[in-house]
Specification:
The chain is mainly alpha-helical and 71 residues long. Helix content is 55%, strand content 6%. It is flat, with a radius of gyration of 15 Å.
């Protein structure tokens, strides 16, 4: 699968953002996605659960700070 996607220039896979942006566009709302990379498909590398939890918590803090600053 990775080779087929890479052949089209795809570097990452993420499913929820497409739905979020589609719904936001339908209702004229603003939407933002902040993502972190936890797995590298091409090398089968993955982030240990503890590191993933820590990085996701940091991502959430950044997102909340951004919302507050731009509120």
């Amino acid at each position: 699968l990775y080779e087929a996607l890479a052949g089209h220039g795809v570097l990452a896979v993420e499913m929820e953002t497409a739905a979020l942006y589609t719904i936001a566009a339908q209702f004229g709302a603003r939407a933002l996605t902040i993502l972190t990379v936890s797995d590298v498909i091409s090398t089968a590398e993955h982030m240990p659960a503890v590191d993933r939890e820590r990085s996701f918590a940091q991502m959430a803090e950044i997102a909340l700070d951004t919302v507050v600053d731009t509120g």
